[in-house]
Amino acid sequence: MAVRVPATSANMGPGFDALGVALTLHADVGLVGVDGAPADAREAEDSHPAQVAFVRAGGSGRVWVRSEIPIGRGLGFSGAVRIGGALVAEQQQNGSFVHRSPAALALCTELEGHADNVGPALCGGVVVTADGRVVSIPVAMRPAFVAWIPGTTTSTSESRRRIGPEVTLEAAVFNIARTAMLVAALATGDTAALREATRDAIHQDIRFAAAPGSLAAFEAGLAAGAWCGWLSGSGPTVTFMCAPDEADEFAARLPADGHTKVLGIDGEGARTL
Asked: How far out from the chain centre does Cα 232 lie?
């Protein structure tokens, strides 16, 4: 019954609460007493997001979790382990794994409050989510994703409160245009369009104001030649796209007050171990 679920980088600049990519960094979730838990796994407490999702999905018992995904850094930890908990509960009840489970998507979107992390965590690849639907975006390039991860954490709920409930018409049009451009650039392999396509007028500047180190890393990465970059989720991690043969050298140019991970697209999404 154990499952593996990828980390995610959401928003991707202008795609606020709508776009996300699954990355090759993972969390494993299994059923205590049934699956052979790895030595470094931990039994989830009642308040753990994986255990909450497991119980809400009808599971009985307790889950264990092993995760490579840093907590509170904007790489989708809570979304990944929630998907894991929900899928383990489904397997317990139904005896089989449900690929791209609509029930898990609906439950975990409700628990997260938005679907831009749980969509790619469940389905893999680059996806757009809206009204309970997940649509995969073809990627006609082979990018590396370099995540610059500082030692600080971000509260998603506090970060969202800073944005406020309204945006201007100008900002809305700005983001609609760049989101469309980003989808087109990914689908056609137009790397030259990515930097403009990932600009944002709704959330990033507000969040960067509370995380000056992330802003410095973002600016340094663009100056160092990244195709594009964005504040991952609500931050403080910054994710960049670049050519895979340049990724290690590029990562070494980023500020030393954060650590880096060179990742790729996880095209599978959640799957059994």
From this structure: 7
Q: Note the CATH number of domain 3-137+267-272.
A: 3.30.230.10
User: Are 211 and 235 spatial neighbours (Cβ–Cβ below 8 Å)?
Assistant: yes
Q: What is the pLDDT of residues 69-95, one digit of tens each?
A: 999 999 999 999 999 999 999 999 999
**Three-class SS state of 133:** strand
39 exposure class (CB count in 10 Å sphere: 0-12, 13-18, 19+)? exposed
Q: What is the pLDDT of residues 9-59, one digit of tens each?
A: 999 999 999 999 999 999 999 999 886 788 899 999 999 999 999 999 999
- Does the domain at 144-263 match CATH 3.10.450.750? Answer given as no
Q: What is the pTM of this model?
A: 0.95
Return the domain boundaries, the chain: 3-137+267-272, 144-263
CB-based contacts of 2, cutoff 8 Å, min separation 6: 28, 29, 30, 31, 35, 88, 272, 273
Helix (H) or strand (E) holding 226: none
